[in-house]
Amino acid sequence: MKTIKNTNMKLPLTSLMMLVVVGLVIANTADKAVAETSAKQVSMTAKILPATDKLPARLSITAAIDEGWHIYSVTQAKGGPRPTKFKLEESEDFKLSGDFTADPAPVVHVYEDIWPDLNVEEHTGNVTWTAPLELGSGVDAASLTIEVNAKGQVCNEEVCNNFKATLSAATD
Question: How many CB atoms lie within 10 A of CB 6?
Fold first, then answer.
């Protein structure tokens, strides 16, 4: 029987896989209940970056992730952990004109025993996603506020928690 060694104990692979399945079921059904506990491991902020000579106005979202924890990228493929997602309130004042890009880029891992043939994209520490904005006619980024709903999964070696955050982005 294969085992995955943890610093505290050894778990049979079948037990670990069962924990992952149970965690994914809970993750998909209990967002509100778990979000409060996960706030301790990840915090998020958002701001609007005004246009420059070379760049359009941009929406910037930063996650600060506690040491020993990680979250998953916005480009995480289906069939594995829950990706980080951002939903913006619709407005005639703006629209996203491109995809979010992460800085730094996610670190890619392959966990063959759990998710065969799936690249798992993880962020640790601090990560900032930025996406270009197209502003409506006559809209000044300095007077704009964008409401962002963020959600995802924050994990360590033993447990995953869902997180949700409502962010309000404005210029500095």
Answer: 11
